[in-house]
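Before a colleague's protein record goes any further, I have to sign it off. What it holds is a sequence and that sequence's fold in token form. My question to you is simply how this chain folds and whether the tokens agree. Thanks in advance; the entry in question is below:
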Amino acid sequence: MEWKQGMRKSEEQQQAGARAQAVATNETRSRGVGPLLRIITSAALILTTTLSSVAHAQALPSLGAVDAGAFSPAQEKRTGEAIMRELRRAGVILEDPEATDYLRAQAYRLLRAAQARGDLDPSLGLAPEDFEVFVVAEPSINAFALPGGKIGMHSGLMVQAGTEGELMSVLAHEIAHVTQRHIAQTIGRQGNTTLVMATSLLLAILAGASGSPDASVGVLALGETLALRDALAFSQGAERDADRVGLELMAEAGFPARDAVALFERLGAASQFYENRDATDYLRTHPLSSERVANARNFLMRQPDPPGLSPASQEFLMLQARLGLAHSPSGDARAVVTQRLKARARQAETDGDAAAAAAAHYGLAWAHLVEARWPAAGSALAVANASAVRISDPARRSAAQGMILRAEQELALRSGNLARAWTLGQAEALRAIAPVSLRAQERTALAAGVQGPPGVAPAEVHRYAEALLKKYPRDSETWRLAAEAADRAGLRADAHRAVAESLVIRGALASAIQQLELAQRAGSADVRTGAIVQARLNELRRTYREELERDRRAGVDRRDPIDRPNRP
């Protein structure tokens, strides 16, 4: 069917785009302008167009005169959404519900503290639930804040953080950049002379995603070196301000501020030698001065951590163990990670640390899953569960058991036990535990459902999909699976509509419009679905026309990833 062809093209093109990303970046050096630079230019225009409209509306003499007040919260939101679409189109956002939902839950603790302090003033236009924390598939240590409460955390930061507190200190720091309106202030300071911050962030992310330490050289060779480097960083004053507010947020949210100080000291030591590439990625965008390190130490002296702070959450320990595998694409690299996990498991057993043992065996189970060693994965999960049962703290025990159950479900799905994978996503199976991501559990059940588990009717799977869409309307994979469910139930119009929504989230607006047009011609839509399709079609056509006009002025090729031919 046409909707299946559209999804298949989208998936194939995303895979091809990931493989071609490094080539495209390196080719920039010889060609002068390549696909990467076109994406960067597009993002730049998003922001400079916004700034131009501000200048006209406020009758300002020049872009350089734009201040934080002129770049309104509403404009920040629109700009952040536009940049997010570009990032999704580029395929650099990691689709990992457990990691993402974990970060969002922890960010909510920090944001509630910010709200209690009065940092989320109504004039900011952002409530805690408006923030969006996402994971960038990049092994280096870095993080960044975008306009409108969008915060990106590199997966490498999650894996290499020495403690959960170190990870939270970076998250709190980026939240502070948003709440203190440093982004708008930076735009006011720099104008559009350095492609502002959005362009630079995209450059850093996309160049880093190619996997080459020298990936950004091609673009930097175009004469933008100093401008881009300046745009990547906030002013020293803004960084000091974010340090202070971030430390206060940590303390008020119950995270150990001493871990933030430890991170500063570690990065400060790295800055003296610049031998650790991963550390210097962070230092290039968050330059540390001796004054800032001293300020962090002084904060801890004035406001020491209260006794009895909880250790790292169980979710953090287990996600660290699993995400390390994502940065080990080769068999040899995975073997190294596996040996490290085995050593960690032995040490945890020796120390009688059931929480650490559960995390290590859980990581080993995922290592076996990646290698399609189903019996070994099942054995490792059984050992992990036995360790989890021994965890004395009920909340930690429940968290461990929830993540182990999710891994058992993934094992069932991959090994072809569809009935079990479907059952493990139902409410009765989840009632006794608290999974870090209910979305991951339910989405995996839907993935099993669309493959036809015995005894489950297509109509039942479709109803399940519809219920999930109400809970997760911004989840591209849920929409894609819902399309499969609708197709199995014989609902062609619903299938096309679901594909369209999945494509919208991925940033492929032209292809989404095509799918909605196919939905109108499918002939199986009821009156309600037909009205929804027509309204959505009108909205997307308007948005797409605006993007085409913007990109025409920038000389950018705005064909969707699934329509754009592969480049050598």
In short: The chain is about 70% helix and 0% strand. Residues 104 and 263 are 21 Å apart (CA to CA). The first helix runs from residue 2 to 31. Strands lie at 132-136, 143-146, 150-154.
